[in-house]
Amino acid sequence: MENREPVITIRDLRMKYSDRYVLNGIDLEVFKGQIIGYIGPNGAGKSTTVKIMLGLVEGYTGEVKILGTDISSGDISYKRRIGYVPEIAEVYDTLTAKEYLTFIGELYGITREAADEKARRLVDCFGLKEAYNSRISSYSKGMRQKVMIISSLLHNPDILFFDEPLSGLDANSVMVLKEILTLLAEQGKTIFYSSHIMDVVEKISSRIVLLGGGQILADGTFSELKDRSKEGSLEQIFNQLTGFNEHRQIAEAFVAAVQEA
Amino acid sequence: MIESRILKGLDLFRGGFEKAGVDYPMMRSILQIKLIMDGRRVPTIVAGGNSRKKRQTSLGLTYVEEGNSFIRSLWLYALMGLMLVPIVLYGDNYIFQMSIVFGIMMFLVMTSLISDFSSVLLDIRDKTILFTKPVNRKTINMAKLIHILIYMFFVTGTLAAPSLIAGLVDHGVLFFLIFLVETILMDVLIVVLTAVLYFFVLKFFDGEKLKDMINYVQIALSIAITIGYQLVSRLFNLVNLTGHFQPKWWHIFLPPLWFGSPFETLLHGTRQSHYLIFTMLVIVVPVLMLFIYIRMMPAFERNLQKLSDQSVRAGRAGGRLTDLIAKWVSGSREEETFFRFAAKMMSTERDFKLKVYPTLGFSIIFPFIFFFLDFHEGGLQGIASSRMYLFIYFCALLVPTVVMMLKYSGQYKGAWIYQIAPISHTAPIYKGTLKAFLARLLIPMFILESIIFLAIFGVRILPDLLDVLLMLPLYTLISFMVLRKALPFSEAFEATQQKEAMLTIPLMLILGVFAGIHYLSTEIPYGVYIYMGLLLVLNVAGWKTVFRRTSSSQLTSGQEVDG
């Protein structure tokens, strides 16, 4: 795998907000077909990394190359090959799913008709056919999330950035999406997957990158991480590597406070 | 569809945009989507009406209705535009007439831009949705600018069209052309001024502050329009349009005067230095501002990020007074809880403020409008010795409306908390909420009004004011009894019912009855005090019994009509 050209290259990436470093020297190479589980505690810099790669955040130092293009060069054509599901499902919700999805398709350079045709098929698979012509503002959380996922895949991208893509989905849809991710990776797509749900990350990721304090704390397959830290589950590895072992004490203090009159 | 016609018009300029490095088809789709979304917003100016018709499906989803609510709201601007016509036609004193016309237009356009279009200028969803797509920044920024300009075109177009035509007919072609060019320059000035205003507010404060500010501008717009209708007929008496105008150096700070000047210099051949300077400013300032605006655009986008930042700020130390009042007026702990909850909601919920505060402002001003009517007859002296202080009853006109509005909230979905909380009956909920309305909105407003009335009429009216003060809780209670009862803040504003709004009219008549009794009581010796005692007894009895009747009703979701 390593002899191939990397899809994403990050070198010494640093980002400073006011006077605090959110990212403190990230080095990362991502290859075709990988599903990267990008994990870390809140405030570790996961979302910032993703936002930098999408060109949403400026003012970083270091080098970020996606599909061979340095993203600071001003050439934005690389975005045509990226799909993105943000953590908060921000969407123009006065539009119907049809209007929103065809619009997103157009932004990616697909014709309206082709986008509509494709969106219809994808919506159908997710069981949203009835709601296709209804306003997104009337959707449940899970339905919105499905629209977000569809909007990120309309243009058949090569790289996917999924930030908590399972939020709001029911157990059956979660199974479908996990299967979709595996199939997409088999076809050579690269998936950059951030989540707080360790069980899912453990199961679907071919490689896990653990972030803490703006640095990479661990990088490897799940079994490699397990060998290294001698812990059973990814959750435990996560706790160990981020130096968190007070969960018992915090829980006890919490319950004590609940039981007080 | 109106959107496609706008876009067809824009297509004519396609070549120009492409020369400027804009990806035209992309910009066109962005604009199309934005225009569709605009059509589904309800502008502040017509928000009172029930303009939305929704069709529900079995799934409870809402289908899109046809038509554009923005375009439909334009008739109101056209109506206001018609009111400008007499000013234009009044005579040849252009500096007066046109400064007034531009003053009114600038105010209306700027407030409507802030109240209805802020959501466009400040939409942070654009960032995640558009910036992650392969579309260059220039195209996105241009789409934003064109979007605002389309909006301005419609608003100023309908507003200025009647006066433009009147000017063309009455004052000739040159007048028309000056007017037209100046209207465009005015638009540029206003767009840039608004953007600069936002820029600085965002630079020094956080997003919440800006949202509050926009909220207050919306409230001001609603008050101004309501009062404007009352005052416009009297405008000509207030300003002497035929008088000779002598410009002063400090007039340079009054932009409407700049806009009046070119009519003097170009049509009347006035060569006074002040007018010449003002005429120059009309052209130079907007153009200069436009350049600054284009320069500032990237910095503006950066500051915009603040809108989405969740700043964790410690709550203000205030609220102690509310706590004190809550303890003092509440009969039970539950009631105290709902008093504080309602007081908080009334002062922070933006949708509620938008609907209710204009009525509040109007109520403060309303009693004085009648003074103006009688002013020239007896003068201030004549008013002071009369019984016109009874006009203070007009400030209670808002009670039925607000009591009705207490049911509604922009965040009505939060009302599930009533269902799951172990509250045995509704009495403390209603009692606490109504008391909060009295203590936080109505009585403070009444005290303010009373101070002004005391200054005009003297301390002799103090017992009468006490009567009115005692009347307020009773009237609130009566309004509550008559109107449909639903848990406070538990329904969407869109659910406001026409039928219920009609009920406020008989309630206003009841207020007239109170005022009538008060008037009669001043005729008999000690009548005012007898009235006072009567009100006191009725208040105590009323507040004791009314809720007992409602408390037996089940705690239902706000949809049902009870009582």
Q: How would you describe this structure to a colleague?
A:
- The complex is a heterodimer of chains A (261) and B (563).
- Chain A has helices at residues 46-53, 97-107, 112-125, 141-153, 171-186, 198-204, 222-229, 234-241, 247-259, and strands at residues 8-17, 20-30, 35-39, 61-66, 69-70, 82-85, 159-163, 190-194, 207-212, 215-220.
- With 261 residues, chain A is an alpha/beta fold.
- Chain A has a domain at 1-79 and 197-260: Rossmann fold (3-Layer(aba) Sandwich), CATH 3.40.50.
- In chain A, strand 7 (159-163), helix 5 (171-186) and strand 8 form a beta-alpha-beta unit.
- With 563 residues, chain B is mainly α.
- Chain B has two domains: 2-50 and 68-308, no CATH class; 319-550, no CATH class.
- Chain B has helices at residues 2-11, 14-19, 24-39, 69-89, 94-121, 125-130, 137-171, 173-204, 207-231, 235-238, 255-267, 273-304, 320-329, 333-348, 350-384, 398-405, 416-420, 427-457, 462-482, 498-521, 527-551.
- The radius of gyration of chain B is 27 Å and the shape is globular.
- The two termini of chain B are 46 Å apart.
- The relative contact order of chain B is 0.07.
- Mean pLDDT of chain B is 79; it is low at 46-66 and 552-563.
- Classes of the chains: A alpha/beta (261), B mainly alpha (563).
- Chain A binds chain B through residues 54-56, 76-80, 82, 84, 86, 88, 90-92, 94-96, 99, 103-104, 106-109, 130-131, 133-135, 137-139, and chain B through 25-26, 29-30, 32-33, 36-37, 40-41, 57, 59-64, 124-125, 127-136.
